[in-house]
Structure formats: C-alpha cells, structure tokens
Amino acid sequence: MSLIRLTSVTKTFPPPSPGTPAVVAVDDVSLDIEAGEICGIIGYSGAGKSTVLRLINALETATSGSVEIDGADITRFGERELRRLRSDIGMIFQQFNLFDSRTVAGNVAYPLEVAGRPRAEVRARVSELLEFVGLADKARSYPEQLSGGQKQRVGIARALATTPRILLADEATSALDPDTTQEVLSLLRRANAELGITIVVITHEMDVIRTLADRVVVMEHGRVIESGSVFDILSAPQQPATARFVASIIEDVPAAEALRVLRSRHPGRLITIDVREGRAAQADVFATLAAHGVRFEVVHGGINDIGGRVFGHLTLAVSGEADAVDRAIVAASAFAALTEEDPRG
After folding, report:
1. What confidence tens digit (pLDDT) does each residue in 143-196 have?
2. 314: closest CA among 278, 268, 267, 281?
3. Quick check: 23 and 200 in contact, CB under 8 A?
4. Which of 48-57, 92-101, 281-290 shows the lowest per-residue confidence on average (mean pLDDT)?
C-alpha cells in the first residue's frame, strides 16, 4: 500500500469575480507515493502542484476524489484527526517562515512546545536537530543574523522536530543561490537516507529533480501529464512540457539554430551518437572512426549520470576523404545508434 495516494482528485475554487468561471486547480489527479521515496512534482506556474501539496497536508479539501495517507482517507477526517495528521507531516517553505522574534533554537522548539512536550525533551530534541543540520553554533542567533541557506536549514530542523513520516517541501530552494541550493538538497537527501522520511518536493527547477528525487510527476493545467523514474523522464521525455523542462538541464541533439552555428565552425559531416546504458560503446565508436583514418571531434552534447545509469547524446564533426568517412560511419553504426545531421540544418 502506498503511503500517499490520490485517486481521481479534483480541486475547484470559486470564481474569482462575478461572471467568471470557477478555477479548476487540480483536475482528476491520481498518483501514488511510496514510503521512503523522494517524489518531485514539477510544473510551470499555475500547473496545480502547490495545490496538490496542500491537499496532502489537508490545508485544502478535495472537491472530489480521495486523498489517502497510510490507507486512511483524510478527506473524511474531523478536526481532531487532522491535527494528529499534521503532526506527522513536516513542511518547509520557499520564504523560510521563521519567527523573527525567536532564536534559532526557539524556532526549532516551537512545534514541540505546541505539542506540549516536556522542557527537557524539547531541549534535547532541539540540540539533536541543530547538530543534524549543522547549526549547533547558531542556537542563540536570530533569523536576521543568518544567511538564506542557514535559514532554510533551520526550517528543515523545525519541520523534523516532531519526527514526522512525511516532509513536504514547497519551492524550498527557489530563494537560494546555486551553491546553497546544493547544500540544502544534500541535507534533504541525508534526512531521507538516515531518517527514512518520505519527501514530496514541489519545484519548477528540473535540476532540483535531477539532484534530489527518485521519481518525478509532471503537471500542466492541473493534470498529471507524465510520471516515472527520474532516469526515464530525463532520458526520454514524452510530453512537450516535459521536454522543455529537460532541455533546461540536458545537452541534447542540436536544434536548427545550433546546427547552423556548428556548421559555420566545423566543415566536416556532423553525426550524433545516442548514448544509453547498455546500448552505445563510445570507445568503440571513437576507435572505429580513428581506424578508418578520419578526423573527428566532439562539438555538442554531453553524458548524464542518474543514479549510476548513463544517457546522453554526443555530436561529432567528422572530416576526411569522402569514401573513408562513409565507410567509417557505417562501421561505427555497429556499436551505437548514429544519426547524421541534415547538411541543410
């Protein structure tokens, strides 16, 4: 049984003004998230991803369909049951949402104090968590004295305070610089690996998905349009919106404009190797081209490693005597899928 399961969920909001239609934020969404996994939900603004997150922690109620946590349909919960549910779900936010009047330790302690935990337990738990996120020396500092990355680490510590089973991250790195983003993502990975916590991350950044997630769900106009392992989605996106996200981080087959630039710089014939786990042997391709006495160089593309599995495309400029190039390309095609780019490109 999945830890989180949405079945045919729709969420409709009232018309924003008289005479306008109701807003369908989530449209017949079904998805399963397994215990212990990191699931990334990606989409452009207005895709419905943040609404899905609010449905999972019951800050919004589904208009139709069911939202189950560990087999229990939370759309049927009363207020007391919802309070218990939320204590089992941690949240981290884009803008940190820290209390400026509280110290770092005070911010982390807050959910434990609300839960009525004994003071000694609160102190011990806060100390443990600040050590975990690398901020033990900042316990008495205030948020205004911290960097953005430090604030987010405080947010993560606070979200973990009640030992939740689920952690929801809503654009948690959007306000951070690239280096700090990687530090925060590494910390989330560690929380997943060491604490076994299930993480659902909402983002519009494909690099966050590539770095953090095990599985990805792509949303557009309130619907799930594609889902699968991060490797499968990045290596072979099926939907145009997904392909646009992937193109933001993956060097792929050169498009028409890129081809024109490459042709102006490289007079040889351009061939692209489809590199995929178990299919392409780059070394054999290169050795075969060299054995036929032709010159070649990599002019576009790259190889990507996702969890130890590789994929990508390499575009080569191959030059030499025409017949030799023809023979070399035919011979090299025995080792990999090769495509010769249209010379008119």
Report:
1. 999 999 999 999 999 999 999 999 999 998 988 888 899 999 999 999 999 999
2. 281
3. no
4. 281-290
Strand partners, 198: 166
- For helices 282-291 and 322-332, the axis angle rounded to 10 degrees is 150
CA 2/CA 268 separation, integer angstroms: 54
Query: Which CATH class for the 256-340 domain?
Result: alpha beta
Long-range contacts (CB closer than 8 Å, 24 or more residues apart) made by 108-111: 108/154, 108/157, 108/158, 108/161, 109/161, 110/158, 110/161, 111/87, 111/158, 111/161, 111/162
Structural domain spans, the chain: 4-247, 256-340
What digits encode the pLDDT tens for the residues 60-81? Answer: 999 999 999 999 999 999 888 8
- Statement: 4-247 belongs to CATH 1.10.10.10: no
The total number of residues shown for the chain amounts to 345
The residue written with tokens 């030499």 in the block is 320
Neighbours of 229 (CB within 10 A): 15
Buried b (16+ CB within 10 A) or exposed e, 234-263: bbebeeebbeebbeeebbbebeeebbeebb
Q: Residue 262 is inside which H or E element, if any?
A: helix 256-265
Q: Is 86 helix (H, G, I), strand (E, B) or coil?
A: helix
Asked if 182 and 176 touch (Cβ cutoff 8 Å), the reply is no
35, amino acid identity? A
Q: Is the pLDDT of residue 7 over 70?
A: yes
